[in-house]
Design brief:
The structure holds 2 protein chains of 2 kinds. Chain A contains no helices and 11 strands. By secondary structure, chain A is mainly beta. Classes of the chains: A mainly beta, B mainly beta.
């Protein structure tokens, strides 16, 4: 098993659909993250979970709803998305979130989302 | 506010050339961490290196080397004798040790490196 696994790899959805992205980490890490990677923009941090508690929500619209049922799994529930939400959504995990660790992030391959 | 600038959007070199990827950062924190990640076409970001703000020693790992200079707020990455497999997008990132956003990675826009045979 690779360290961080994301499914699906590709997703096409209409603006009225509801879908979920899944992320699973097999590294025994305590923190998990969702990042959005759009064309020509820096990676944007969306959500951070530490020990299954959400500790960061970076002004993300409510049409994105994260869920962290346990330290190994992270979901991103999507509903009524807009075409500008099309992007690569990357999940990551780290041993610990904050200082003094600032542990490196281990990323999954991402889900390429297209909203039509 | 924290910011990471990678001024080079794309670089193209021929195999065996040396190439340096630039990274300039901004932070008000005195304790921070700098990272480099590689993103091959498969999409997964691969961690390359982490440096803390108190360690300005340059580091070498095989064909990779990093030059950290606090005086110029730069953390440049050099690949020696580049290979086709080095083709990827490379991201520089900053993480602060204090404050509300501690631990969050702030990424630059990335530099796309193409190594031609």
């Amino acid at each position: 098993e690779t360290g961080v696994t994301q499914t699906p790899r590709h997703l096409v959805m209409g603006m009225t659909n509801k879908k979920s992205l899944k992320c699973e980490q097999h590294l025994g890490h305590n923190a998990m993250y969702w990042y959005k990677q759009s064309a020509k923009k820096p990676l944007e941090l969306m959500f951070v979970y530490s020990l299954e508690e959400r500790v960061e929500n970076n002004s993300v619209p409510s049409r994105f709803s994260p869920e962290c049922p346990n330290s190994s799994h992270l979901f991103l529930h999507l509903h009524t998305l807009q075409p500008e939400d099309s992007a690569l959504y990357l999940c990551a995990s780290s041993q610990d979130r904050a200082a003094p660790y600032n542990s490196p992030l281990h990323f999954g391959n991402g889900t390429r989302l297209t909203v039509t | 506010a924290q910011k990471v600038t990678q001024a080079q959007t794309e670089i193209s070199v021929v195999e065996k050339e040396d190439v340096t990827l630039d990274c300039v950062y901004e932070t008000r924190d005195t304790t921070y961490y700098l990272f480099w990640y590689k993103q091959p076409p498969s999409g997964e970001l691969v961690f390359l290196i982490r440096r803390n703000s108190f360690d300005e020693q340059n580091e070498i790992s095989g064909r990779y080397s990093w030059n950290f200079q606090k005086s110029t707020s730069s953390f440049n990455f050099t690949i020696t004798a580049s290979q086709v497999v080095d083709s990827a997008v490379y991201f520089c990132a900053l993480s602060e040790a204090n404050g509300r956003s501690q631990g969050n990675l702030i990424f630059g826009k990335g530099t796309k490196l193409s190594v031609k045979p």
